[in-house]
Every structure is written in C-alpha cells, then in structure tokens.
C-alpha cells in the first residue's frame, strides 16, 4: 500500500508506507489468547478470594438461591426426646432436693427451738419438782393448743405464749421414756393431751392443792372441766351413735342419751402423782385418776344409763382416750 504526501515546493522525497499483508493463520492464532484473557477476568471477578473475601457477584441479581431445610429424621427426633427427658429428670431432681432441704431445715428449727426452751425451762425446773408441777398446770389450764392445720382451734381461748411453750416444756421437764398409764414417751403423752383438747369443748384444768411426799413424789389435786360436744360422741362414745340408728327400744334409748349428754358440762375431780427422778431432775412417771362417773350421774340421773354410756366408751381405767397401740 502506497501513500504520498503533497509537497508543493518539492523539498522532500516522497514517503512510501508499506503494510505487510497478514496471513490468515496469524489472525486466527490470536483468538485463543483473547478468550483466555476473558475467562481469566471472569474467574477473577467471580472468585471471593480475589476481592479480599467479598462474596461473589451474581450474574443474575434477580435469581434467589433456595434455602436448605434441615431434615427431621427419626434419629434426630429420638435425640430430642432423650434430651427433653433428661432435662425433666434434672428439674424433678432439683425440686425434690429443694423439698428435702426445706424439710431438713424445718426439723432443724424445731430441734433448736426445743433445745432453747429446754435450756430456759431447765434453769427454772431442774432440782425443783414444786416449780415443775406449778408450771405444768399453768401451761395446760386451757388444754393443749392444737395448731389450726391439724384441727379446729379449741373453743376456749388461751394466751398466745402457751401455744409455743407447751411441747417444749414437756420435753424439758420429762424424761424421754416417761411412764403414764399403759403408755410411755413424751410423744404419746402429747397425743393424749391433743385428744382431750379436741374431743371435748371448753377445756379448763384448775389446780386445787399440792402435797409433796417422800421419795420424790408430788401429789396434786385438780378439777377438770369439760363440755360434751358432737366430737366427744363420735370419738369417745361412738357406740351411742351407731346403736341410736337401730330400730327398737335400744335405738331410742341411745338417741335420748345422746340428746341428754350433748352440751353438758362435766366437772371431774382429778388426782395426779408426779414421780421425780433425782438423777435427771425430771418427771419420770405420771399417774392420773379422774372421776367421770359422778358428773355423768348428775347429768343422766340413772346409774344404769351411766353404766351403758361407759360400757363401750373409748376411755381406759387410767383415763387414756382412743385406741391404744
């Protein structure tokens, strides 16, 4: 190819530009190189490492990649059930431990309270049977104050300090195996006090006189005033209620006896003997006799009726109430 530049003055020689004709093979050999460069550039843009960890550019921004759902296989479900069961077991064990701890702490509080009152009453009652008997009648003049959680409160009212002091006084002033009637032990003695206080109404225990005998024995005379209630008929004279439903003269007689006894006031004379242990300085034996026949005779005015009432009564000759085990 020739190219001439115009020169009006003719100073320059003509310029000849020659272009070499390229072969077809040379032209086509450059195509793979260009294709490789394009592919390399595409990989560089698509690779996250090439852009410093940035996510790859999506060729089509409108396309949304579907999320992978976790399959709930049988093994997975079984593992979940096992984990839940272990969690519930740990929770139940934790609650059980807390309940046992609460019970233990309550027992400790009760023991410490008893120990405290034992020390307090021990100072006043040890080596002195006279003060022990006087304190006994003072604390129990309204009976045993049963907690409301066990039964209804007694009809008579008592000062609030007695509610706390009674059991502690008994454990402090009596031996653990104290004997009374056919029973022994402070717990059994307290149980009898609870029965008397709940089965009868308007309980009042009044000390009349005291006399100290040789060999460490104190005899106390007292009056026990009781009111016959429906609870008395159910728990002390249950045979009158069961037989009163019978047809005939016996049923009518028992019904009349219940009507006569209900609400009546019995003033029973009592004599108590306190056996004192000089070694432990506590009461080791307590014997009580109570005359319940005379006030019953005054109410029913018939000796045969009194005998019928006491025949199957749940009260022993030593004045213990209820079934003895």
Q: How many individual helices? A: 10
- Give the proportion of residues in helices: 40-55%
Average of pLDDT: 77
Number of strands: 6
Termini distance? 140 Å
Would you give an account of this structure?
With 325 residues, the protein is of the alpha+beta class. It has 10 helices and 6 strands, in the order H-H-H-H-E-E-H-E-E-H-H-H-E-E-H-H. The chain has a domain at 107-311: Nuclear Transport Factor 2, Chain: A (Roll), CATH 3.10.450. The chain is 48% helix and 18% strand. The chain has a 6-stranded mixed beta sheet with strand order 2-1-6-5-4-3, sandwiched between helices. Strand 3 and strand 4 (217-228) form a beta hairpin. Helix 7 (238-244) crosses helix 8 (249-261) and helix 9 crosses helix 10. Mean pLDDT is 77; it is low at 1-5 and 151-161. InterPro entries: bZIP_sf (IPR046347). One of its GO terms (molecular function) is DNA-binding transcription factor activity.
What's the arrangement of secondary structure elements?
Blueprint: H1 24-46, H2 74-125, H3 129-139, H4 160-173, E1 174-180, E2 183-184, H5 186-199, E3 200-213, E4 217-228, H6 230-235, H7 238-244, H8 249-261, E5 265-277, E6 282-291, H9 293-300, H10 303-311
Parallel strand pairs: 1-6
Antiparallel strand pairs: 1-2, 3-4, 4-5, 5-6
Helix pairs in contact: 2-4, 7-8, 9-10
